[in-house]
From TrEMBL, chain A:
InterPro entries: Metaxin_GST, Mito_Protein_Transport_Metaxin, Thioredoxin-like_fold. Residues 288-333 form the Metaxin glutathione S-transferase domain. Residues 70-107 form the Thioredoxin-like fold domain. This is Uncharacterized protein. GO terms for biological process: mitochondrion organization. It comes from Zalerion maritima. GO terms for cellular component: SAM complex. Pfam families: GST_C_6 (PF17171), GST_N_4 (PF17172).
TrEMBL record, chain B:
This is SAM50-like protein SPAC17C9.06. The keyword Membrane applies. InterPro entries: Bac_surfAg_D15, D15-like. Belongs to the SAM50/omp85 family. PANTHER family: SORTING AND ASSEMBLY MACHINERY COMPONENT 50 HOMOLOG, SORTING AND ASSEMBLY MACHINERY SAMM50 PROTEIN FAMILY MEMBER. Keywords: Membrane, Transmembrane, Transmembrane beta strand. GO terms for biological process: protein insertion into mitochondrial outer membrane.
Length: 343, 490
């Protein structure tokens, strides 16, 4: 019932006198079954699955195809590498609890549904509480690593490694977060030749209205510009310097990867759970597993090398393509995560 | 016109007054004093029918002036004037019947600012308003206001309005723009909206009512979701542009809108969004209708007004998804978003329920519905020892309603996906038919109670003790006291 003890308890400053409480307990006189949700609302079936909300097109998302946003793709790949089953949903930043995609809506835990049932209603018609009658708390991207690492990949043991504490990883992470990200922002948001691509990915999905599109394009560009200036600490944007820095960063990444399958593979702490029998063919060498860092590198290299992205200004794409090691690394992850033909 | 004012012309016995009124009169000169900022050609149409005519009687002139004055008063340019003064024409060439008319007007201040704080409809706000009157000397006005509050987080609005038909204060054209940010706690989000539009209104006349035809472009953003926001709200979060045409008709024949004792109100609104050249992201036809009536109740042994009245109201609405573009056939329509659906419940419509407390719910959120109906019956009587004309009443009420979402979920995933495929027009039709059937066959959610009503000239206040009688699972009833402040109650 809507007026649960929780509610009466919360208004304890205005304690309800007991005769009134007795009167209240008789109301409502009749309670019917819940109203059905309107068509557009997510259905019951989608609530039984983990859903990762990412930047994606409405046609790509249901097929689980890679997101076109590096941060979203990083987490999408990480969760896939971790062996977590989830559906992708095309979304936007407004839907996210943090204001930034991605986020994950965990599937409705059946135990919680059981617990939500009031004892006397179990087994009755009213006892069948639809999944949409409980709140689902989203997992923001900051908590996704924990979510992925805590997942026990079944028979294969944990499938992803943890680069926490690997000192070098932090250094290289900052290369990704500053140099490569700046070049990415410049390439996608500011390079005039890529306006069409930017429009297709981030502007057109906003609205069909020209006014809304023009305004969005403008604010996206201003935001990218501000972020680049903040990261480079300069007063003006020097495209040459940005791409040169990105080139160095790719080179450094390529060197540190070397002939290994995964970044920092040999440095990771030993995993007590070695791969057991019944490991799937996707299983990787237990001593060397992909980590969040691999996903992060892939999120840029894949999007730069992917033919579907249709880069017109190919400066950054060509820099990424220069390193055979990074190209192999990208192909490897693509093969693991998207080897099955898409539905 | 004169005849109606004077009563029955068939009355054979002519009184001296009537005799006086039916004498011919001509206006030699009309002088309007004190309208220094008002254009000559704006004032002309009011008096033109009266001057340079020699077939008028005294009564014609009087009623003509009266009508001109009452029209002028409705422009809100001048301090209210009652009469014009007539004097025998002093011109040497004047005829015997000539009079001069002098009308002394006082223009209201052409520019004023006010600030204030308000408490109403479960919200507190502070606002500032700038008002420019009679900008070009033709009754044009510009109103700019800004407010910030607990529910309406921020609102900035500007409206420029101008009369369009000379001599007609009721036909007006206006253009407006607004930017608002409104918290919608019943659905765990805030809606940011930027809109621009224009409208024409006409036919309001002396009594309340009239027509209004408007066009607006509204860029809405559902944002700032709370942590517990449901998948329904998350799914609809983000931007959508609604381009729509709205037609509204209102007829208000109630004796007092805040505390009607007799009379009726009829209001209908029809909105068409997205179809044809309108474009935008949402496409639908949305209609809403409201009727309300009040009847005084006579009491045996009490002469005249008893102050007891019974009033009732009924509202209903339907939103019908349409395909984008020009054709209806063979195209897919997108089912309604949360910001286009109807919400029902709260102290101003179905009392005894929380705001948005009725209808389909997704977790903590009111999802709203595509079809709704709500009605109420109220019995009002004066408080003991207060007069019939007191602004206080005790009310007994029973009200109920239903909001039903568009059906079609059971037909598999295709329709439920919303974002991509959309629904075929036949699926929409079946869905609407199903929703209306559900609305009509199911018992409404009902609440009843007793309360105190205070009708202030600008708003009505209600303090009710409510008990929900019939609920649907998940609906949020309100047991106990509920406060309502507003101008439009069910």
């Amino acid at each position: 019932m809507p007026e649960s003890p929780r509610r009466t308890g919360s208004s304890s400053i205005f304690t309800i006198p007991s005769p009134l409480r007795q009167l209240f307990s008789h109301f409502p006189l009749v309670t019917y079954a819940a109203s059905e949700l309107p068509v557009r609302c997510p259905d019951e079936e989608s609530r039984t699955k983990n859903t990762l909300h990412v930047f994606s097109s409405p046609t790509d998302a249901p097929r689980g195809l890679p997101s076109y946003n590096p941060t979203c793709l990083k987490w999408q790949v990480f969760l896939r590498l971790a062996g977590i089953e989830f559906e992708t949903v095309a979304s936007n930043n407004h839907a996210s609890p943090t204001g930034v995609l991605p986020f994950l809506l965990p599937r409705a835990p059946t135990a919680a549904i059981e617990a939500a049932r009031e004892p006397e209603e179990k087994g009755t018609e009213l006892g069948r509480i639809p999944l949409h009658h409980r709140a689902v708390l989203p997992v923001a991207s900051g908590k996704l690593e924990e979510f992925g690492l805590s997942y026990d990949g079944g028979a294969g043991g944990k499938r992803v490694g943890d680069v926490e504490g690997v000192m070098r990883a932090e250094v290289y992470q900052s290369l990704l977060d500053t140099r490569i990200r700046c070049a990415w922002l410049h390439s996608l948001y500011l390079a005039p030749e890529n306006t069409e691509l930017l429009g297709r990915l981030y502007v057109n999905p906003i609205s069909r209205s020209y006014v809304a599109r023009a305004s969005t394009l403008h604010s996206l560009r201003r935001a990218a510009e501000a972020e680049i200036l903040r990261a480079t600490g300069t007063a003006v944007i020097d495209a040459g310097a940005i791409y040169a820095a990105a080139d160095e960063a790719f080179e450094a990444l390529s060197t540190v990867l070397g002939e290994d399958d995964w970044f920092f593979g040999s440095e990771k702490g030993t995993d007590t759970k070695a791969g057991g029998e019944g490991a799937t063919e996707k299983e990787v060498d237990p001593r060397s597993k992909p980590s969040l860092f691999d996903a992060a590198v892939f999120s840029y290299t894949h999007l730069l090398l992917d033919g579907d992205m249709a880069w017109q200004d190919r400066r950054l794409a060509e820099l990424a393509a220069q390193s055979p090691a990074l190209v192999r690394h990208r192909d490897r992850i693509l093969d693991i995560c998207w080897s099955e033909p898409v539905k | 016109m004169a005849a109606s004012l004077l009563g029955h012309g068939s009355n054979a016995t002519t009184s001296p007054l009537q005799d006086q009124l039916s004498r011919p009169m001509t206006i030699g000169h009309i002088s309007v004093v004190g309208a220094s900022h008002t254009r000559h050609n704006f004032l002309n149409p009011f008096f033109a029918p009266l001057v340079s005519r020699d077939d008028l009687t005294v009564a014609d002139v009087m009623s003509g002036l009266q009508s001109a004055i009452s029209k002028l008063n409705r422009y809100d340019i001048f301090e209210p004037v009652e009469t014009a003064s007539l004097s025998k024409s002093s011109s040497p060439t004047a005829a015997q019947t000539d009079v001069d008319v002098a009308l002394v007007l006082k223009e209201k201040s052409r520019l004023y600012f006010k600030t204030g704080t308000e408490l109403g409809n479960a919200e507190g706000s502070a606002n500032a308003e700038g008002h420019a009157r009679n900008i070009f000397g033709g009754g044009e006005s510009l109103v700019v206001n800004a407010s910030a509050g607990t529910r309406t987080r921020s609102a900035y609005a500007a409206e420029f309005a101008t009369p369009v038909v000379p001599g007609d204060p009721d036909t007006r054209l206006s253009v407006n723009a607004a930017a608002t940010n409104v918290a919608k706690p019943w659905a765990s989000h805030e809606e940011v909206s930027k809109l621009a539009g224009g409208k024409v209104s006409w036919g309001s006349g002396y009594e309340g009512g009239g027509h209004q035809l408007g066009y607006s472009m509204n860029w809405r953003t559902i944002t700032a979701l709370s942590g517990t926001a449901s998948p329904t709200v998350r799914n609809d979060a983000g931007d959508s542009v609604k381009n729509s045409i709205t037609y509204m008709y209102l007829k208000d024949k109630r004796d007092n809108p805040m505390l009607p004792q007799s009379g009726y109100l009829y209001k209908s609104v029809w909105e068409m969004a997205g179809w044809g050249p309108l474009g935008g992201d949402v496409s639908f036809s949305k209609s809403e209708m409201e009727v309300a009536a009040a009847l005084p109740v006579p009491l045996p042994g009490v002469k005249g007004k008893t102050g007891v009245s019974i009033s009732g109201g009924f509202r209903c609405g339907m939103m019908y998804p349409l395909p984008m573009g020009y054709t209806f056939m063979g195209r897919k329509a997108q089912p309604s978003r949360i910001n286009d659906r109807f919400q029902l419940g709260g102290p101003n419509d179905v009392r005894g329920f929380k705001q948005g407390g009725l209808g389909p719910r997704d977790g903590p959120d009111a999802a709203g519905g595509d079809v709704f109906a709500a009605g109420s019956v109220n019995l009002l009587f004066p408080l003991p020892r207060t007069g019939v004309d007191s602004n206080f009443r005790v009310q007994l009420f029973a009200n109920g309603g239903r909001v039903v979402g568009l059906k079609g979920r059971s037909k598999g995933k295709a329709s439920g996906e919303g974002g991509g495929g959309g629904m075929s027009m036949s699926a929409v039709k079946n869905g609407i038919v199903g929703s209306v059937q559900d609305l009509c066959t199911g018992l409404p959610s009902v609440a009843a109670g007793v309360g105190l009503v205070y009708a202030h000239p600008v708003a009505r206040f209600e303090l009710n003790f409510c008990l929900p009688l019939v609920l649907r699972r998940g609906e949020e009833g309100r047991k106990g006291l509920q406060v309502g402040v507003g101008i439009n109650f069910l």
